[in-house]
């Protein structure tokens, strides 16, 4: 698989690359994730964290999948809500975000990774 999630200087995630360079076609999972990211960053992260890939992931995609999975875990542990929209999910503590930043593998755009960026992605609605 030749896909990466790139962190831009503005703190946004962008899916880049495809699986066709080695003569294979993208698997169904990557097609769904790619379609979700083309819609919005938050939908892309939800698709990334909410389903199981069919193939091995690049270190960057794996890191962001774990981040999105952490969000979904907290979402699932919330009590049911009344109304159309749930309250925002509190972001992890700064110390937890710091551990994520320090434990991140080499990522495209990793120089832009910070506690503030992770907090912004956590609360992103775009």
Task: Tell me about this structure.
- The chain is mainly α and 126 residues long.
- Helix content is 45%, strand content 8%.
- It has a two-stranded antiparallel ribbon.
- Helix 1 runs antiparallel to helix 2 and helix 2 packs across helix 3 (59-76).
Which secondary structure elements does this structure contain, and how are they paired or packed?
Layout: E1 3-7, E2 13-17, H1 28-39, H2 41-49, H3 59-76, H4 94-103, H5 115-122
Antiparallel strand pairs: 1-2
Helix pairs in contact: 1-2, 2-3
Strand content: 5-15%
Amino- and carboxy-terminal Cα gap: 26 Å
Spatial extent as radius of gyration: 15 Å
Mean pLDDT: 85
Relative helix content: 40-55%
Could you give the count of β-strands? 2
The dominant shape is globular
Class from helix and strand fractions: mainly alpha
Poorly predicted parts: 19-24
Can you list the strand order of the major beta sheet? 1-2
SS summary, helix count:
5
The ordered string of helix (H) and strand (E) elements is EEHHHHH
Gist of the model:
The protein is built from five helices and two strands; from the N terminus they run ββααααα.
Question: Which short descriptors sum up this protein?
Answer:
mainly alpha; 126 residues; 5 helices
């Amino acid at each position: 698989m030749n896909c990466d999630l790139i962190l831009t200087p503005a703190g946004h995630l962008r899916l880049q690359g495809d699986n066709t360079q080695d003569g294979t076609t993208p698997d169904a999972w990557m097609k769904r994730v790619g379609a979700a990211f083309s819609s919005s960053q938050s939908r892309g992260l939800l698709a990334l964290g909410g389903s199981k890939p069919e193939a091995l992931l690049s270190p960057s995609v794996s890191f962001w999948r774990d981040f999105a999975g952490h969000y979904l875990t907290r979402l699932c542990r919330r009590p049911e809500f009344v109304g159309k929209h749930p309250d925002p999910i509190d972001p992890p503590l700064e110390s937890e975000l710091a551990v994520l930043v320090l434990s991140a593998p080499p990522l495209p755009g990793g120089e832009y990774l910070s506690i503030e960026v992770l907090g912004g992605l956590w609360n992103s609605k775009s």
